[in-house]
Amino acid sequence: MKASNYYLPAVELATGAEPNAAVIWLHGLGADGHDFALIVPELRLGGHAIRFVFPHAPSAPVTVNGGLVMPT
Questions:
Q1: Phi, psi of 33 (to 5 degrees)
Q2: For the chain, domain boundaries
Q3: Below-50 pLDDT ranges, the chain
Q4: Across the chain, where does the E strand assignment appear?
Q5: pLDDT of res. 2
Q6: Distance between CA atoms of 6 and 52, rounded to whole angstroms?
């Protein structure tokens, strides 16, 4: 299998002009990246320049939820 440069869609936020750190925040079953993006201002990072990446998982049927299609 050939490697690709495929990236999941994501919400990306930076708390400063030139971030020198990054946080990749993963969500749980049924959620997406938007569910946690609003937490960044609440962290009160005091001027630290950090890039936050909140990826959206692809959707698929989930057996434990009766086959309901949701982000997994």
A1: -60, -30
A2: 10-71
A3: none
A4: 10-14, 21-24, 50-55, 59-62, 68-71
A5: 60
A6: 19
Query: CA-CA distances (angstroms) from residue 62 to 30, 34, 55, 58?
Result: 10, 21, 19, 12
User: How do strand 50-55 and strand 21-24 relate by DSSP bridges?
Assistant: parallel
How far is 27 from 50, CA to CA, in rounded Å? 19
Q: From CA 39, how far away is CA 63, in angstroms rounded?
A: 30
| pTM over cut 0.90 | no
CA distance 30 to 57: 9
Can you give the pLDDT at residue 38?
92
